[in-house]
Amino acid sequence: MSAAETIRPQRETAIIPMRRSLKGALVVLVLGLLVLLFWQLQFEFRQLKDNQRALSLAVSEQLAKQLSLNMASMANAGSAVLQATRGPADSFEQQQRYLDNLRVVFPTLQRLVHLDASGQPRPGSPMPPAEQALLAELIARTGQHRYYYIFDPIDGGHLDLMLREADGYWVVRLHAGALGSWLPHTPQQDVSWQLEDITNQRVIADSRSAMSPERSFPPITAANQAQTIVLQDLPGSDWQLRAMYDENKAQAQVLPEMAGKILLFSLCSLLTLFALYRLVREQGQLHALNAASRRSLHQAASALGAIEERVLVTDVTGRLTYLNPQAETMFGVSAPDAGQWHLFELLPSLNPLLLHATAFRNDEGPDLVEIRLHNQSRLFTVTRSDLRDASRLLGFVWVLRDVTEQQQATRVLQET
Fold first, then answer.
1. Residue 320: is its pLDDT beyond 90?
2. Where are the beta strands (DSSP E) in 61-146?
3. Where are the alpha helices (DSSP H) in 307-378?
4. Relative to the CA of 391, which of 56, 176, 350, 416 has its CA 20 to 30 Å away?
């Protein structure tokens, strides 16, 4: 057996662990990519929730500023109208002029009361004693504010606007529906907020509509408090704006899209793993076929090493590619160095026409060549066979058989 044949199995056994480690690395890589994709989806999910939370916070802050400006502008407009309409006495006719002019600013105006500096009604503004006590308490709560808004949920709800002047107060009673013109008219699906009265703990308006449904003014619930992001007090009132974030609702909106992405990524990963499995399986089959081929070649090489004939393999130009051990011994050429030799360098007396595919004729029998071995001339028959694959000629196989004794015996018989 030649040196090349002994080296190849060692190389094959060294490649097997490398291939196995490469397969494991590919599987780990695919699984790592899948984990990375899931992490990316989780990060995107958190980011979407954070963005919605930040949007709710920004919208509520902007809404609080807008509502505060609207409340201040309406109060200033009412004060200006009252100042411009004021007459020499608070008669019934003058009170009617006040009401007519104020309805231009406050279309939902219900009542107007004029109080002196001590909180007592002026002539022309009669009031029940219970309401007088309520207004006195209201004046105490307003402090030094130029205007102050109060919400009362009784009788369908109404708003009381107290306007301070130099010698007293004006109390403007509005229907609760007036607040709808000071709030956004378009419902915002992704933002949740509600306007609340701190004193009565009631919801005056919310983000689903300009006013609470059916104007029922529901109480503030524990769920509202649990979803609170920030509370913003509105100057000149007992009101606050509560910005809320419903995480369950946000998850219900985001999860379908995330689930679609997860399903798509999982399907792609499964297809990748299946393709990798098929490749690994095919590679295993090819490896088995290669190992079987190598065993067959090894057995063939062993068989060639066991026969007495000298076997040489060349390409179509006559360049050596293989020698069996007997040929190596006879010519002194090792198999690894075979490519450096040409057939005619070893058999110079061989007919050059034999290298042509059409030159060899079986009916003439094999050629005889004389080779000197150990200072003796030996006769060898040379038989050529074509080495082909399915479609083309790859080279030739040359078999040298020692017929020296046979030729001598034939000559003796001829002489006898």
1. yes
2. 109-116
3. 325-331, 343-346
4. 350
